[in-house]
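Weekly sync notes, structure subgroup
Attendees: PM, AL, DS (notes)

Item 1: joint prediction request from the bench team. They want all two components modeled as one assembly rather than separately. Inputs as received:
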Amino acid sequence: MAQGFAQWGNDLYTGRRSYDIVGKRRVWYTISAVLVVLSVIFLIKPGLNPGIEFRGGQEFDIAATANPDQQLAVDTVKGVEPGESPTVTTVGKSGLRIQTSQLTSDQVQEVKDALKTAFDVDDTKISAEYIGPTWGADITRKAVTGIIVFLIFVTVVMTIYFRNWRMALSGLIALFHDLIITVGIYAAVGWEVTPATVIGFLTILGYSMYDTVVVFDKVRENTADTLDQNRFTYAEKANLAVNQTLVRSINTSVVALLPVASILFVGAVVLGAGTLRDIALALFVGMLVGTFSSIFLATPLEVSLREREAPIAAHTRKVLAARAARPAGEDVSQVELAGVTRSAAQLRPGSHQGQAAQPKRRKPTR
Amino acid sequence: MAPPTRRSSPWRTLAALGVLIALLYGVIAVGVATGKASWTPKLALDLEGGTQIILTPKSTDASGKITSNTINQAIDVIRQRVDASGVAEAQISAQGSNNIVVALPGHPSEATLDLVRTSAQMQMRPVLLEAGPAASTDDSTATPTDAATPDATSTPDATSTPAPTATQKYAKSADPTPAPTSSPTETTPTSPSDAAYYLTPEIQAQFDKLDCTDVANRGGGEMGDPTKAFVTCEQQGQAKYVLGPVEIEGKDVKSAASGLNSLPGGGTGSDWVVDVTFNSSGASKFAKITERLKDQTSPLNQFAFVLDGLVISAPSVSVIIPDGRAQISGTFTRDSASTLANQLNFGSLPIQFTVQSEEQISATLGTDQLQKGMIAGAIGLLLVVIYSMLQYRALASLTVGSLVVASILTYGVITLLSWVQGYRLSLAGVAGLIVAIGITADSFIVYFERIRDELREGRALPAAVDRGWERARRTILASDTVNLIAAVVLYFLAVGSVRGFAFTLGLTTVIDVAVVFLFTHPVMQLLGGTRYFGGGHRWSGLDPRRLGVTTARYAGRGRVVTAASVAATAPAPDAGASDGPVPAREPVPVGTPGMTIAERRAAAKAAAAKAAVDEPQQSEPEAGRTDGSEH
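Output from the run, pasted for the record:
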C-alpha cells in the first residue's frame, strides 16, 4: 500500500498524474454549496439541541450504580419534587444523567439525598450541577466575540504573510463553510450542545485556518514567478501546488483524525455523553471538512479571485493564446502531450552556485 | 537558490534542547525537594472532584459599572471569607471581564457555599471601643471566658505589634479598655456614639472573647444588625472594634481615590492619602457625624468603614467636613492607599453576585473520563505510529521520537505551570493535548514531504534536508502562528472549560515549534549524514527510487550516479556527513534544460510513438546549460 502511495505521491509531485482540481472548480463549488444548504436545513430542523448549560437548570450525574434504572430516577425525583418532569439519560453502561428545571439549593440537597438512597451510591459517585439561565448566553456571546476577534487577527496576519488579501478572503470563506457544515452535522446527529461542543467548534476555526495556510503556502511558493514565465497560467500553477500538497494533506488529516476518531469511538461507545465525546465529534467532522475545504474550496476560490486581477488575467490570456497557436500543424498526440505537460512541475532556472559548488579534490585529511 | 553556505551544528542544537529539558525538570525537582511542587500536574475540579461556582457580580444600581477593579475587590472579599472557613486550596480567579470562578475541592459544606454566594456590602459605623486583636482574658470586666479559643491564649500578644500600615490608630491599640461600667438602663441612645447605651455587658463579653489573630474570625460576611452595636475585627487582624449602629451606607460613597496629599501652598506633598467623596445625602450625614465626633476622645472620635463585616479603615475625625469630601491620611504607602481606595470604591457599589453555574463534580466521574480518555489517546497515538511507519518507514522513528520529546516537554511545562501559575489540567485540557498529537505530527509531515519533494527534484539527501527545511520552516511557522492566534484569542475571551482547552492548545503549538526546531530538524540533519538514510536504504523512507527518481544524477567530478549504482554502492555522501562548512552539493538533473521529469517522460513516450516528430516543445528562453540531451 505504502509503495503505491509513495509512487502516487511522486506522480502527483512531478505532474505525471494530476487532478484538475482548480479547473473543475464549479463542481467543488456545487458540492460545497449543497453541503452548506443541507447544513442550514439541519440547523433549522431538527436544529441544535441545546444542553443544560444553554437552557439553564439542574443536573445530577450518578456514576457506577449497580442498577441504572431510568424509571427509578424519574420516580425518585418526583417523590421529592412532584412538580418536576426530569429528563433521564443513561451514560455509558452504569451511569445516569438526570436533568430537572432550576431548583433551590435545599431542593437540590433533598433530591441528591433521595437519589443516593434510591441508587445506593455514596457522595463521591453523585454530582450536581446548577446552571444559571444566562450562563449559556454568556458563553455564546463570548464565543462569538472570540470568533470575530480571531477572524480579524487572522485576516491581518494572512494578508501580511501572503501579501495578498485574496488568500485571506478565500481562507475566511472556507472557514465559514467548515464551521457551518460542522455545526449542521452536529445538529443532524442530535447530540446535546455543551461547552465542550463549543470548544470543538472553536478549535475547528484554528484547524481549518491552519490547514488552509499550509496549502496556500505551497500555492504561494509555486505561483511566485507566474508572471515571469509564459508556459503555465496561474490556475495551472496553483493546481500543481494543490496536487503536490495532496499527499501531505492526506497524511496530516489521517494522523490528526486517528486520535480524534479514537476519542470519538471510546466516547460514543464506552463513555456516553460527556466532554470527550462532544469535543471529538465536532473535531472529527470539522477536521474532515477542513481538509476538504482547504484543497477543494479555498484554493479554487483563491484562483477565481486572483484571475480577476488585471496582470494575472492578462497573463492567462497570453499563455492560453500562445498555447492555442502552438499545436497548429502538430498532430493529435502532440496536443495530448501538451495536455499532459501543461500542469507539470514548475521550472526553476539554474543559477551560478558559487565557487564552492565546483568539484574539488578531496582533502587528504578527510 | 544558492545552497545554504552555513549550517549550524545539529549537535549544538540538540545539546541546547537537552539543557532546556534538564533545566525544566531541574526546576521542578527543586520545587519537589522544597515541598512546594509535585511531579504530577494538579488536576482541575472536573477530574479531581469538587465544586465549582461561577459568579457574576451585578450592580443593582443602574449607574454602577463593574470594572476589573470591582472584580478584584470582590475576589479579595470572597477569598477572605473562604480562607476563614478553612477550605484549603480554594481557587478563586477572575475569568473574562466579569466572571469570578470559585473552585472548591472536595465536598464543601453548604455553609461554605453560602459564604461564596453572598454579596459584600459596606457600612460606616462610629467606633465605640478599640483594642489589640487578641482575646483579652485578663480583663477584669470580662465575663469569665475559659472558653476563649485555645490559640488565643496560647499566643498572647503574639501579634500585638501590628504593622502600622493603612489605619492610623493601632499603635495605641493595646491600651486597657475603658470600663464599660455604665448601667444599661438608658432607654434611648443619645447618639450613635453613645457608648454607655450600646456597650452592654454582652457586647463587652463578645468583644473580650473575640480573637482577631485567628483567621477563622476574620471571615467577614456577617454585617450585623444595622441598628445595634457590632463587634468585629480589622481586616488584617490588627485590631478589634466595637462599633455603633450604621450611620452611612456604602452607596452614599460616590468615589474614592488615592493620591499624594496637597500642601496648603498648592504643591503636592509626599504623603499618600485617600480622598473620599460622598454623594449629597452622604455628605450631609457625614457633616453631622464629623461635627459630633471631632470633640470626642479617642477612640470615640474614630469612624469605621466596614466592608463585608470587617473594618478596612477607622480614621479619627478632627474637623467638621461639611462638603462630603473627606481625606484619610496616615502612614500609607502607595499600595496601601490605592488598596483602601479600591476597597471603598468597591463598597460604594451595591453589588449582588449572580450564580451563573454551580457544579458539584464527583471524583469518580472525572477519573473515569480521564482514564478512558487516556486509553483513547494511547490508542490514537499507536495508530498514528503505525500509520507513519507505513508511510515513512524508518523515518517514522523520528516522528515517534519527536512526539516523545514533545510529550516530555509538555508534561514538564504543565507540571511547572501548575506549580508556578496554579494551572490545573481539566478534561477539556486533556482533549486539547490529544488533539495536539495530530497538529504536532503535521509539522513533521510537512517537513518530510518537503524533503521528499526535494529528493524528487533530484537532490541528494543532505541538500534535500537543508532545502526542504527552508521551505517547511516557513510553512510551519505560518500555520502555527494561526493556531497560536486562535489559542490566545480563545484564552482571553473565553470562560470555563474553553479556557483550559485554549491554554493547552496554545502550549502545544509553542512546544511543537520548539520540538521541530530543536529536535526534528537537527536529528534529520544527522540522519541525512548516515549511510542508512543518506544512502537511501529502501526501508529508510527516503529511498530516491521509491520516490520515483530513476534518472541519472550528476554526482560531481564527472561521475553520474544512476539509481542502480546508488543501490550497488550506496556512496556515503561527503556533504553533510560532517558539520564543517562543506556546502551541500546540488546534483543537477541531466537532461534537456528546463524539462521536468514528467515532460521528459512524456517526450520519450511521444518520441517512441512517433519517431519522426521533433522536439515537442520549444524550450523557453533560459539560462541554457549545454550538457547533452538524452533524447
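Discussion: Residues 215 and 245 of chain A are 7 Å apart (CA to CA).
Action: AL to compare against the crosslinking data before next sync.
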